[in-house]
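Ticket 4471: requesting a sanity check on a complex prediction with adenosine-2'-5'-diphosphate. Repro inputs:
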Amino acid sequence: MNAPLPVQVLKQHLIDPEICIRCNTCEETCPVDAITHDSNNYVVDPDICNGCMACVPPCPTGSIDNWRLVLRADAYSVQDQLGWEELPGEKALPEAVDAGAGDEPLAALADTPAPAAPASFSSAGASVPPWSAAHPYVNLYTHKAPMTATVVGNYRVTGADTESDIHHIVLDFGELPFPVLEGQSIGILPPGTDAQGRPHHARQYSLASPRDGERAGYNNLSLTVKRVTEDHGGAAAHGVCSNYLCDLAKNDTVQVIGPFGHTFLMPNHPRANLIMICTGTGSAPMRAMTERYRRRIDTGENGRLMLFFGARTERELPYFGPLMKLPRDFIDINLALSREAGQPKRYVQDLIRERAAQVQDLLSDRNTCIYVCGLKGMEVGVLDALREVTMQAGQDWSILHEVLRREGRLHFETY
Ligand code: A2P
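Returned structure tokens:
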């Protein structure tokens, strides 16, 4: 057992700015609002953080899991952390404090396990992968040592006459290893600097291709990128990285970091079923998983696939053409179109309710995993729909929800 820390010493929770990809997961997860950010860094307020660890498992990079022993009076302030380009090294504590630490030296206390995540862990999704997921590699390439990839394809996958300019971009890694799994993401470092003259931070994109490459057997992968021309409120805004990516030409090179993500992963055992729920570019991981299944369609290993896909219109739904060519007995496709002329507005959650019997049938199978990716707003609607479907079948959603989370069978990636 490790000795308790002397009261004047704090095991301060810090975020590594060199690895953090600014995905906001930690800030959303923190149950006590100790995590904030500015345009430079994500930081932890030492006066608020209680070391509950709720933010640690969901972090896709591990940048969240950094700790320093400091005197409480000398704790790094939020202001200090906002200015950092890298984490400070360990500082020696005054000898008087060290002596008061009990039988064990302070170095040993650095490994003190923090308390387990509280039951009130706020995320609706799991913080563990499905039991059979393959082993993911993360952080192989970093801000300091990125990988150079070559663009081998860049195609628009939405109707040319629509506002949704979504591109399918294929990157090749040549001879260098870049092992990935479906559901993981990578970071792209856009060239140039921000308003403060600092290099841009990496932007995170989910893979749209399966582990064995956009083209099977090739050392490449694909991304689904929407050109950002306005902010969430509809005001004009130029997305630095999305515009950079959508304008790339064949043979251009791109700086890549990652891969990231160790929980939003597909099950790897035979006859596992997937329920995939997405909107817009949230289709990227669903495409990756579906393609993984399609490539082994003749093996008899596949379970069932059920897809709920939301878009404004058919022409704004990325990959509409290839998706509709997939055999009906391979994947059960449900398109929720919200602005199609002559059709009622529908969201993915409406279709989940309409297909309640089939959804319930899959939910009651322990081989089923559920993936939700896309607009943040859909999260509540999808959870409500799943609750209703379960209740209609006379079951208790709160129990099933907890089981799905504990077994790594319900995953969200929303933005
Ligand atoms: P809407 O027509 O109401 O915007 P986008 O094209 O903006 O990426 O959105 C993809 C799809 O997600 C659109 O059909 C959009 O409908 C729909 N959508 C918007 N809000 C929600 C929500 N809260 N739940 C589910 N779908 C939503």
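Notes from triage: The radius of gyration is 23 Å. Leaving this open until the requester confirms.
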